[in-house]
Amino acid sequence: MQNTSKHCQITNQSNNVIVSIDNPWATASISLFGAHVYSFIPKQDARERLWMSPMASLEGDTAIRGGTPICWPWFSNQFPEGQTGLPAHGYARSSLWSLDQISDNQNNETELLFKLESNGLPGFPYKAKLSFKVIIGQHLTMSLTTSNIDNKSFKITAALHTYFKIENLDNTQLTGISGTYRDKTRNFDNFEAPAVYVFEGETDRIHETRASDVTIVEPDAETFIKTDGHDSLVVWNPGAKLVTSIANIPNAEFKQFVCVEAAITTPLTIAPGNSHTLTQLVF
């Protein structure tokens, strides 16, 4: 690993490694298990942008609930045809990545590059390289690149499944999302996005759109999200009923977050020697 940053601290934690950033722009925390960004606090307003479950484990023993899980090589349970019994959201979020490089750029932002290589996994028998570039500055920028190093094409779905911290779901709305969406809670039927996008009960929606700018609007704060390389934006919150069946989210916590995910939900073919990058920027 090459580390030339003056703003980074690395600590071992059980079967995991935690990277802590404190630069002139922001503080941030990243777990090597999952290459998982789980805290980002810009110094301009000292407001945490990412929600983490108080029951989340950072011990490297299970997928982390909160922050930005990386879903790859499939999103949700979009397993290869005919396959069952595979891990939901794939392997990336529950793998120990390597930290290849840490540096400070000319703007005093901290850049980190995480890497993971697949040499064939159940449901994904291909050779692929993943790189995850994170830039901690006034903005949080996360870019997941999938490179095909096999001699045959493969298909992926993927997501940057970010949990955004909010004060109260009842007083939160989204702007920047329009058109139709597929509703997982209603047999994946199509519906029109509401003109005023608020949350009532369980929300699990796939907006097949390349719209790039979404804002989470609260009475006293706004969180801005920019996305690239996606074919969908996924909006998720379990609501009061479903949250009771999720072991690592306290029942009352569902009102403290909303997921707005940069996603590839239609299988994307990557030819040998080619790559694809999925990016989410937060500020």
UniProtKB/TrEMBL annotation:
Q: Does the keyword Isomerase apply?
A: yes
Q: Which reaction does it catalyse?
A: alpha-D-glucose 6-phosphate = beta-D-glucose 6-phosphate
Output the Gene Ontology terms for molecular function: carbohydrate binding; glucose-6-phosphate 1-epimerase activity
Q: Which domain of life is it from?
A: Bacteria
Print the keywords alphabetically.
Isomerase
Enzyme Commission code: 5.1.3.15
- A Gene Ontology biological process annotation? carbohydrate metabolic process
Under Pfam families, the record lists: Aldose_epim (PF01263)
Q: Does the keyword Isomerase apply?
A: yes
Q: What class of enzyme is it?
A: isomerase
Where are the catalytic residues?
161, 261
InterPro entries cross-referenced by the UniProt entry: Aldose_1/G6P_1-epimerase, G6P_1-epimerase, Gal_mutarotase_sf_dom, GH-type_carb-bd
Q: Which family does it belong to?
A: Belongs to the glucose-6-phosphate 1-epimerase family.
Supply the PANTHER family for this chain.
APOSPORY-ASSOCIATED PROTEIN C-RELATED (PTHR11122), GLUCOSE-6-PHOSPHATE 1-EPIMERASE (PTHR11122:SF13)
List the protein's name.
Answer: Putative glucose-6-phosphate 1-epimerase
Species assigned in the record:
Planctobacterium marinum
